[in-house]
Amino acid sequence: MMRQPTFLLVFTLNVILIVLFLAGCNKQQNPSSDSVLGSVNSATTAMAGGARIEKPFQQQLSGAECYGGGGGKYAGDVGFGFPSRSNRVLAFTIGPLSDRLSPGQENNRPYDGAGTYPNIGIALQSPNGKPIAGFGTITVNPDLQSGSFAFNDGSASGTWDCGRRL
């Protein structure tokens, strides 16, 4: 008689643990201060700003997530995701990247404000889902929240705005 309630209790607990685990896997994780994305400012940051892709297709993106790497391993890096970090149609990182996924960017100068940043890996996703990637130049305007991007070969370009100062 005791085996059936014990079995049901164990079974129910296992189901609850599995559901909690799966819910945690789908939850957007906030980056730690040790990540290239740095600390999260607020949910409204993701809704502000946006980007305009002019080439190779035209698309207006609403929303931006722009993060400074803070100190430590990612000091001098600023990561950009449009319209968001988890749903990137346009993404790039300014600064020296030594993540082994960004060859040639380990010697890039750290982010230090307005100016032109060459040799930046830029990734786009076309409306049909095709990834487009290349190296290019990122320009940060004097307002320290907006700028432009262009692939070195001229195949992609546009503008971006973080919606807040970097």
Describe the structure.
The chain is of the alpha+beta class and 166 residues long. It has one domain. It has two helices and nine strands. The chain has a nine-stranded antiparallel β-sheet with strand order 2-1-9-8-7-6-5-4-3. A hairpin with a 5-residue loop joins strand 8 and strand 9. The termini are far apart. The N terminus is likely disordered.
Task: Give a brief rundown of this model.
By secondary structure, the chain is of the alpha+beta class. The protein has one domain. It contains two helices and nine strands; from the N terminus they run ααβββββββββ.
Overall radius of gyration: 20 Å
Q: Major beta sheet, specifics?
A: 9 strands, antiparallel
Kindly name the structural category: alpha+beta
How much strand? 35-45%
SSE succession: HHEEEEEEEEE
Spatial shape = globular
Termini separation (Å)? 65 Å
Helices, strands, pairings?
Blueprint: H1 3-26, H2 43-47, E1 50-55, E2 59-62, E3 65-68, E4 78-83, E5 88-94, E6 115-125, E7 131-140, E8 146-151, E9 157-161
Antiparallel strand pairs: 1-2, 1-9, 3-4, 4-5, 5-6, 6-7, 7-8, 8-9
Features:
166 residues; disordered N terminus; 9 strands; 17% helix; 2 helices; alpha+beta; single chain
